Amino acid sequence: MSKEIPVYLFVGFLESGKTKFIQETFEDPQFDSGDKTLLLICEEGEEEYDPEKFAFGGVYPATLEDKSELTKENLEMLAKKSGCGRVVVEYNGMWMLNDLAAAMPDNWVIYQCIATADGSTFKLYANDNAMRSLLLDKVAASELIVLNRAENVNDEESREFVHKVVRQASRRCDIAYEFADGSVAYDDIPDPLPFDIEAPVIEIADQDFGVWYMDCSETPEKYKNKIVRFTAQVCQTPRAGKDSFVPGRFAMTCCVQDIQFVGFPCKYDKVKELKQRDWITLTARVSVKYHPVFRGEGPVLTALEVAPGTKPVQDVVTFS
């Protein structure tokens, strides 16, 4: 098996500050791993890199002019040509992250993903369906989003708006505000869960399924060996595994075009008695184990009780 190559991913729209962030990262001696670095530039803005200020050498920049160049063959060629031991990607904000995932060589592994945004345009993009979808796509994969030009969102109403938008995509993504004078402030708005995680049976209300699904996806260890109860639809799929199905809900990230079915695989010895798309009330124990659907470890349910359920008034859930 080829040596694992860590990928550091920087995402955000054009002129959101990605180049500046990467430049400053490369000026930090602590980022020197001793490896050659492939700097993959997927869009070019007004700001340019200044290699003379890099704290280390061995940086090989390569520009993808068009998304058609984002292929596994091309990335493998660039990795071989550069002899890189790590990759830093300045990703195009208009490309979905699934495109990158499909093109990444098998031995490339994303170690860190940071998003940048422009405080002067954040609200505009977030209120536009097409741009919002692209924005949330990037936030969902990020552990941190940095809003530059934060003076434009430096009031309580704006901070609440930013917080709500980010939480629609991720409950684990931290939010930082960077001001023109170089100072940084961090979002400290609390995110209490709308259910009691310490209860003998965690009751997930219909309107809270999206919040639970996201929280369990991002921090599955929190729910290990706990019992949950929720209303869901039956999805019979071979991907769930033997004697298993997927109880879940249709969820919307930002608009109707983004509606998709979400849920976790669930072991149930009477799975053949269930009918596709029937509503059920499921009581199940959560474990954290390997499953092919995750390509690694993730939440896997074991049904303790399956009873007929009632379709919720709002059958499509959101993540906030």
> Strand order of the main beta sheet, please?
3-2-4-1-5-6-7-8
Fraction of residues in helices? 10-25%
The total of helices stands at 7
Determine the strand fraction and express it as a percent band: 25-35%
Order of helices and strands: EHEEHEHEHHEHEEEHEEEEEEE
Amino- and carboxy-terminal Cα gap: 41 Å
Oligomer: single chain
Report the sheet with the most strands, covering strand number, pairing sense and barrel closure: 8 strands, mixed
Query: What do the pLDDT scores average to?
Result: 94
Care to describe what's here?
The model has no long low-confidence stretch (mean pLDDT 94). 22% of the residues lie in helices and 31% in strands. The strands form 2 sheets. An 8-stranded mixed β-sheet has the order 3-2-4-1-5-6-7-8, sandwiched between helices. The protein has a 5-stranded mixed beta barrel with strand order 10-11-13-15-14. It is globular. The longest helix is centred in the middle third of the chain and has 14 residues. Helix 5 crosses helix 6.
Topology of helices and strands:
Blueprint: E1 5-11, H1 18-26, E2 37-41, E3 59-63, H2 72-82, E4 86-90, H3 97-103, E5 108-118, H4 122-126, H5 129-141, E6 144-148, H6 156-169, E7 174-178, E8 184-186, E9 202-203, H7 209-218, E10 227-235, E11 244-251, E12 260-263, E13 266-267, E14 279-291, E15 296-308, E16 316-317
Parallel strand pairs: 1-4, 1-5, 2-3, 2-4, 5-6, 6-7, 9-10, 11-16, 13-15
Antiparallel strand pairs: 7-8, 10-11, 10-14, 11-12, 11-13, 14-15
Helix pairs in contact: 5-6
